[in-house]
Specification:
Length: 247
C-alpha cells in the first residue's frame, strides 16, 4: 500500500504537508548539536513535513563542524553553513534566515535547552499570525542571567514598542516571506529585537506561547559574556533610530 502524504485534520480532510525550514545556530556545541538535530528530525518526520534543516556553525573551535557534517552526510535534507570564524549570534541567525527556502522558518539554539516536541503545537497559529515568539516559562539559567534577560526585554520593549515577554527566547517561528521584506543588520544579541521591531513596523503580527526550558548539560554559554553584552548595547544605540524610523 502506498504511503499517504500530508496530514489529516480532525474532520478527516487531507492537509498538505507543512513546509518548514528549521535551523540551529551553533558555537562550540559538539556535545549538543547531534541531540538537537536528531530530535528535530524525529519531530519533522512525524509531521511528514516538507522540511529542510540547516546547521549554522559560527566558527566553532571544537568539533561542532565535524559533527554537523556527519549529520548532513546521513540525511540529504540537512545542510551545514560554516562561518570561517566566529561572527556573532546575530550573524549566525542572519545566515540561517537567508538560507531558508520553505514557507515557514523556525530556529532554536544548538544547546539542547528546549524540547523540539513543543514545535508542532505552534504550527496552527500560523493561520492567524505571522510570528510565534515563545517565552521560557521557567528559565533554567543562573539568577544573574535571568535578571539580565528580564532587564534586556523590558528595555528593548520600551525602546522599540514591543510587548514581548521574553525577547531573546530562542524558540521562534516565522513566515519566511518576512525576510524578503525586512533588513537585518545586527551581528550580535540585538538580532531578535531587530527582527521583531522591523517586522511589526511592516505590519506583521505576533503571538506568544510558553515553552519549557531545561538546564544546559554540556558546553558553555556565551550570552553572559561582558563583550557580548557591550556589543549588544552598542548595537541598540546604533540601530534604534533606524529601526524606529523604518530604515
Amino acid at each position: 500500500m502506498a504511503e499517504q502524504s500530508g496530514r489529516r485534520d480532525p474532520q478527516g480532510d487531507s492537509m498538505p504537508p507543512v513546509s518548514i525550514s528549521v535551523f540551529f545556530p551553533c558555537y562550540n556545541e559538539q556535545d549538543n548539536v547531534a541531540k538537537v538535530a536528531e530530535q528535530a528530525i524525529q519531530v519533522l518526520e512525524g509531521l511528514r513535513a516538507d522540511y529542510e534543516m540547516i546547521i549554522v556553525d559560527d566558527g566553532s573551535s571544537d568539533n561542532t563542524a565535524a559533527v554537523a557534517d556527519r549529520i548532513a552526510a546521513a540525511n540529504k535534507r540537512v545542510r551545514v553553513i560554516r562561518h570561517p570564524h566566529n561572527l556573532g549570534y546575530g550573524a549566525a541567525l542572519q545566515s540561517g534566515f537567508r538560507a531558508a527556502t520553505k514557507e515557514l522558518v523556525f530556529y532554536t539554539d544548538g544547546d539542547a535547552q528546549f524540547d523540539l516536541k513543543e514545535l508542532p503545537p505552534l504550527l496552527p497559529l500560523m493561520k492567524e499570525y505571522d510570528i510565534v515568539s515563545c517565552y521560557r516559562m521557567d528559565r533554567k539559567d543562573t539568577p544573574r542571567r535571568r535578571l539580565n534577560g528580564w532587564l534586556w526585554t523590558k528595555m528593548n520593549g520600551a525602546l522599540f514598542s514591543l510587548n514581548v515577554r521574553d525577547i531573546d527566547c530562542a524558540f521562534k517561528l516565522y513566515k519566511r516571506a518576512i525576510f524578503d521584506n525586512i533588513t537585518m543588520e545586527s551581528q550580535g544579541a540585538l538580532i531578535a529585537t531587530e527582527i521583531l521591531a522591523r517586522a511589526v513596523r511592516k505590519g506583521y503580527t505576533i503571538t506568544q506561547r510558553g515553552v519549557h526550558h531545561y538546564p544546559r548539560t554540556a558546553g558553555q554559554e556565551t550570552g553572559g559574556n561582558p563583550r557580548v553584552i557591550l556589543r549588544a548595547f552598542k548595537e541598540v544605540i546604533k540601530l534604534h533610530g533606524r529601526i524606529v524610523s523604518g530604515r
